[in-house]
Amino acid sequence: MSEDIRIPRDANNDHTNEMAKKRREFLKEKTGVDLKYTGEYTIDPAVLPGNIENFTGIVQMPVGIAGPVQINGEHADGLFYVPLATTEGTLVASYSRGMRVINECGGVKTTVVEGFMQRAPAFIFQDAREAREFGTWVTENFDGIKAAAETTTSIGKLEHIHQWSVSKTRYLRFNYTTGDAAGQNMVGKATLAACEWIKANYPVPCQYLLSGNMDTDKKHSHLNMLHSRGKRVIAEIVLKKEVLARVMKVDTRVLAGATVLANTGALMAGAAYNGPHSANGIASLYIATGQDEANVVESHAGLLSHQLLENGDFYLSVTLPSLIVATYGGGTGLPSQRECLELLGCYGKGKANKFAEIVAATVLAGDISLACAVIAGHWVSSHDQMGRNRP
């Protein structure tokens, strides 16, 4: 490759203001674009190693605050002001409206059921019988496999291994708890150590691929809906008939009928989520708080459940079975992202379940607001007024 088209780098210290400026000047020469606003930032590039390569500047996202929302969780308990990073007009207002309804109905109840992170190696044998026998050996030697995996981490704990046979291959899905880290890299390193231990101790020669793609990293899968990847968290509320009528101008019986129609439409479409828009709140919260944004594709999947009660009130819940969140490590420690986590009381160790409950509560608030806006006819008009069609 010709040297004159290589992006400038400093092998000794690449995360500096000087190198960022040099790259912006290089790009202006090559493309004619002056990255003026990208080059205006306040953080010290020295905090960025491990988060970004070829650092050139900062893309600034506007952050709005929704809420407060009353959460009655096992980990998140109280009123929370929720930071949402977005460029979509009406979004913050809509979530705030849903949170108002939640508050007037006594708050949202949140529960973290379980949480795992996976790596799924595939072991290859001479035939299907060898693969089957290997599976039995894995079950019998789980303690040794667990000990080998956990030599690489003080936080990650191997809890169980799922197994499937296909042809002459045995797919294993290692399930770990990972503390307050999302844990994808953690479990990859741990599983590599476990696989090497297996290869050294299993009496029959075998080969393996560290990921046989059943961990479904950065991809939605129905397997995660059943077995949980990240946190399985549930947010639920009983919407009072009179509150919904007064605030949203919607009757609960109409909402029940519309929800049935929406469930059918989602089923026909094969959607990963049958509610109105889980990804909006999750993505906005993830960007604001330094989560791995690609995890939205897994985390937004879920199930919206409802029941029209005999007194006319309306039970509504959202189940997110693969909500991948972190409050420690990765991008969570960057200055503005850390501030947003601190706003929620969720920065640092021991806070991941609390953050998961806040995310689920936010998703439920957004679904209440959008569903009612569609029914009441405010969906298009609110975007006309506040978002899409500004002159």
From TrEMBL:
Keywords: Membrane, NADP, Oxidoreductase, Transmembrane, Transmembrane helix
Signal peptide per UniProt: none
Record flagged with keyword Oxidoreductase: yes
EC number of the protein: 1.1.1.34
Top-rank lineage group of the source organism: Bacteria
PROSITE patterns xrefs: HMG_COA_REDUCTASE_4 (PS50065)
Sequence intervals crossing the membrane: 358-380
InterPro entries to which the protein is assigned, alphabetical: HMG_CoA_Rdtase (IPR002202), HMG_CoA_Rdtase_cat_sf (IPR023074), HMG_CoA_Rdtase_eu_arc (IPR004554), HMG_CoA_Rdtase_NAD(P)-bd_sf (IPR009023), HMG_CoA_Rdtase_sub-bd_dom_sf (IPR009029)
EC class: oxidoreductase
Molecular-function GO term, any one: hydroxymethylglutaryl-CoA reductase (NADPH) activity
Recorded family membership: Belongs to the HMG-CoA reductase family.
Protein's recorded name: hydroxymethylglutaryl-CoA reductase (NADPH)
Native source organism of the sequence: Alteromonas sediminis
